[in-house]
Design a protein that fits this description.
Length: about 675
C-alpha cells in the first residue's frame, strides 16, 4: 500500500489535529470513526506471524513543552526511526531521522519546543572485540537535521543527559568521558552543550573514580558517585546549594547491601531532596524528603501499599517537583501525587472500564498529555487529551493489524511450588478454549515461558510472544519464579543459591499446575525463553530431559561460568556483577547447559542476533556446536542485524516464523495438524 499522507483526527470542539505518517501502511492512522481491525473473534484465527511481528507505532512518546508535537521512536518501514510529528494545527508536518544499520536509538527528550536530544548506541571494534559506544545528537524540529554532540570525545559513553534548559538557550548538561582506558580521562566530565550548534564548555571536570553525576532542576551539578570495585564500595559527594565545593556525604558497602541516599529530585532553594527507601523488606517502601546537609529526615512523602515497591519517581517537566511514582508488580501502576493529575487518572479509570489507562507524557503546563489504553489481551492505542476540552482522541493503534481487538484471554494465576512457596504466573489461553461458563476444551499443547533477567517479572500487560503462541493453538504460562522482582525483597532473595535448582523447580511446577487444572497436556509441553529464560529452556532440556518435548532458546546463556568471566573482564563494575551472579548458585559448571549436552533428548531451537549487546553471540554458537558434536537435534537461526530486543521488524518476523516452523515439526498444535 502507498505511504500515508495527511490524516485528520476529529478532536471535537472545532479543534482539528493532524498526524503525518510516512509509514508503511496508512491504516496506522485511524479516524475517529473507530474502525478496528482484529475486533471480531473470527479474525483472530487469521492472524499471521507478520501481524505480530509489526514494530509498534511508537515507543517512548514524548510531548513537546507546548504540547503541539510528539517525538518518539516510530515504526517506519520495519525499523525504528526518531520522528517529530505535529498533532495540533492546520497542516500536516513530520520530521524523521533514520539511523544506519547497527545504530540503535536508546532515548529521546525535548530540550524545548524547537529541539530534541537523541541518544544512540552502536557497536565498534576495539582491540579485536566489539563494544557498545553511546553518543548524543541534537535534532532540529524545524529542519529535521542533526548536530553531533561531543563526538570528538574518545570514551565509551557520551550520551547521558543530566538536565535540559527548556528555554531558548538550547542547552543541556551532557556526561562524557574521553578514554576507554582507566585513567583520569576515563571518568566522565560534564559539559554544557548547545544542541543547535554543538558548542560546549566544561561544567564539571572529571574527578578520579566518579562514575556518574547528577544535576538539579536549575542545571547545577550537585552530586557525584564514586565506586571502588576491589572493595565493592560506593561513595557519594554532594555540593550544597550555592557553593562550589563537593563534600563527601556517605558511603555504602555493596557486599552488605547498603544503599546510598541517592536523590531522585533536588527541591529548589536549599538542600532538601526526595529519595526512595525500599529498605530490607521489613520497612515499607516509601519516599522521604531528606536534608542532605544536616543528614536528617524531614518528612515521609509517600508510602507504598504493603508488598509493593517503588520502582521510580515521575518529576515535573522542569525537574523541581514530584508528580508521581511508579510501582512494579503483576500490574504496573502509576500513583499520581499531584492532586490534579490524580483526579484525571481517576476519571480515566472510571471511563475506560476493562482497560488499563496510563498517562505516558505531559507537556510543560500539564494541560495536554499522551495517554495509552490497553489490556493484557489487547494491544494498546495512543490517545491525546487536552484538559481544556476533556475528551480522549485516538492518534493511532500501536499494532496496526491487531487494532485494539481482544485476542487470547490472559489472567494471573497462583500455584504452590513443591516446597510450598506460592508462585504467581501469567496464563494465556487460545480464544474459545474456555466458554463463558468456564467449561474447557481438551488439554492443550503447552509452552512454559520463563522470563529473562532473572531479576525481572512478567505482568498483566500486552505481550506479543504469548499472544502469538496462543494464536497458534498453544496454552502459555509465564511463571514468576523465586528470585523474580515485583514481590518484595524476601521473595527476590529466595532465588539466591537456587539457579538451576529451586528456580527451575518453580518453572516445572507451573506445568504441573496447568496439567492438574486440565489445561495442559503434559506429554505435549515445550519450554521457551529469552536471555535468562533461554538459559532456563536449555537447562530444562538437560536437567529434566523426559519432561519436555522440545526447547527454544533466544539469546540464551549456555555457559554461566563463561558469562560471569566476561563480566569480570568487560565491565567496570564486573566484580560486583559477578558477586550477584555467584550468589545465585554454588556451582556454575554443574548447572550450565553447555556442560550437560549429553543428557538432552529433545530437539532444541537456538536463535541469536549478532548485534546482541547483552548476551554474547558465542553463547549460542558454542551450544549449537556441542549439540551437533553430540549428535543431538539442534537448529540454529543466526540473525546478522538483530539486537537483544529485536527492534527490527525483519528480525521479529524471522524469529516468529522460525518458532512456528519448529513447533509445527516437533510439537504441533491441533490447528496445525491437517
Amino acid at each position: 500500500m502507498k505511504s500515508a499522507g495527511k490524516y485528520a483526527l476529529a478532536m471535537g470542539a472545532g479543534v482539528v489535529g493532524y498526524l503525518a505518517l510516512a509509514m508503511a501502511n496508512p491504516a496506522m492512522a485511524q479516524t475517529a470513526s473507530g474502525s478496528n481491525p482484529g475486533s471480531a473473534s473470527a479474525e483472530v484465527r487469521k492472524l499471521s506471524a507478520q501481524d505480530y511481528a509489526t514494530i509498534p507505532f511508537v515507543e517512548q512518546p514524548d510531548l513537546s513543552p507546548n504540547g503541539e508535537w510528539v517525538a518518539g521512536l516510530f515504526g517506519v518501514n520495519g525499523t525504528r526511526q526518531m520522528c517529530m510529528i505535529k498533532i495540533l494545527g492546520g497542516e500536516s508536518v513530520r520530521k524523521c531521522l533514520g539511523l544506519p544499520d547497527g545504530m540503535t536509538a536508546s532515548g529521546i527528550q525535548w530540550v524545548n519546543d524547537d529541539y530534541v536530544v537523541l541518544s544512540v548506541t552502536q557497536q565498534q571494534p576495539i582491540e579485536g572485540r566489539f563494544i557498545y559506544v553511546s553518543r548524543a545528537l541534537g535534532v532540529s524540529r524545524e529542519t529535521g537535521k542533526f548536530v553531533k554532540l561531543k563526538w570528538d570525545l574518545l570514551g565509551q559513553n557520551v550520551s547521558r543527559v543530566l538536565w535540559v534548559s527548556r528555554d531558548a538557550r538550547n542547552e543541556i548538561l551532557l556526561s562524557g568521558s574521553n578514554s576507554i582506558y582507566q585513567g583520569e580521562e576515563f571518568y566522565p566530565a560534564i559539559y554544557r552543550v548547545n544542541v543547535a550548534n554543538g558548542k560546549s564548555n566544561f561544567e564539571q571536570r572529571h574527578s578520579h573514580n566518579v562514575l556518574w553525576w547528577n544535576a538539579d532542576g536549575q542545571g547545577q551539578v550537585r552530586t557525584g558517585v564514586t565506586y571502588d570495585d576491589d572493595r565493592r564500595l560506593f561513595q557519594m559527594y554532594y555540593r550544597p546549594n550555592g557553593t562550589d565545593t563537593l563534600q563527601r556525604l556517605e558511603r555504602a558497602d555493596a557486599r552488605k547491601r547498603e544503599d546510598l541516599t541517592d536523590p531522585e529530585i533536588f527541591l529548589p532553594g536549599g538542600n532538601h531532596v526526595i529519595v526512595i527507601r525500599n529498605g530490607d523488606g521489613k520497612e515499607p517502601s516509601a519516599l522521604w524528603e531528606v536534608d542532605l546537609v544536616n543528614h536528617s529526615d524531614v518528612a515521609k512523602v509517600y508510602e507504598a501499599p504493603a508488598g509493593r515497591r517503588i520502582a521510580y519517581t515521575i518529576p515535573a517537566p522542569d525537574g523541581t517537583s514530584l508528580l508521581g511514582v511508579g510501582l512494579r508488580g503483576v500490574q504496573d501502576e502509576t500513583v499520581w501525587l499531584d492532586p490534579e493529575l490524580a483526579k484525571i487518572q481517576e476519571a480515566f479509570d472510571k471511563a475506560a472500564v476493562g482497560r488499563h489507562v496510563r498517562i505516558v507524557s505531559i507537556n510543560a503546563n500539564r494541560q495536554r498529555m499522551l495517554v495509552s489504553l490497553d489490556r493484557p489481551d489487547a494491544p494498546s492505542a495512543l490517545y491525546f487529551f487536552d484538559t481544556t476540552e476533556g475528551s480522549l482522541h485516538r492518534l493511532a493503534y500501536q499494532y496496526e493489524k491487531l487494532g485494539m481487538g481482544v485476542l487470547s484471554p490472559v489472567r494471573a494465576v497462583r500455584y504452590k511450588a513443591r516446597d510450598g512457596l506460592e508462585i504467581e504466573a501469567i496464563l494465556t489461553l487460545p480464544a474459545g478454549f474456555e466458554d463463558e461458563g468456564g467449561k474447557k476444551g481438551k488439554p492443550l499443547p503447552f509452552i512454559v515461558l520463563p522470563h529473562g533477567g532473572p531479576w525481572a517479572h512478567d505482568g498483566l500487560s500486552f505481550d506479543y510472544w504469548p499472544q502469538f503462541l496462543a494464536n497458534l493453538g498453544y496454552g502459555v504460562i509465564q511463571p514468576n519464579f523465586r528470585g523474580s522482582t515485583g514481590y518484595g525483597e524476601d521473595f527476590e532473595r529466595k532465588g539466591e543459591g537456587q539457579m538451576g535448582l529451586a528456580m527451575q523447580d518453580d518453572v516445572n511446577d507451573a506445568l504441573a499446575w496447568a496439567v492438574k487444572e486440565g489445561l495442559a497436556d503434559g506429554k505435549r509441553a515445550c519450554i521457551m525463553g529469552a536471555s535468562y529464560g533461554g538459559y532456563a529452556a536449555m537447562w530444562g532440556l538437560a536437567r529434566d530431559a523426559d519432561l519436555w518435548r522440545c526447547g527454544i532458546s533466544i539469546a540464551g546463556v549456555a555457559s554461566l561460568r563463561r558469562e560471569v568471566n566476561d563480566m569480570d573482564d568487560n565491565y567496570l563494575m564486573g566484580g560486583l556483577y559477578s558477586d550477584q551472579w555467584k550468589a545465585m548458585t554454588p556451582d556454575f559448571a554443574a548447572v550450565s547447559p553447555a556442560n550437560k549436552v549429553d543428557r538432552i533428548k529433545a530437539p532444541l531451537l537456538l536463535v541469536h542476533g549478532k548485534m546482541d549487546e547483552r548476551v554474547a553471540y558465542g553463547q549460542s554458537t558454542n551450544m549449537a556446536d556441542k549439540m551437533r558434536a553430540a549428535g543431538k537435534q539442534v537448529e540454529f537461526l543466526s540473525l546478522p542485524k538483530a539486537d537483544h530486543y529485536y527492534t527490527r521488524e525483519p528480525d521479529r518476523l524471522a524469529l516468529l516464523q522460525s518458532i512456528e516452523a519448529f513447533l509445527k515439526k516437533h510439537n504441533p498444535s491441533d490447528s496445525m495438524v491437517p
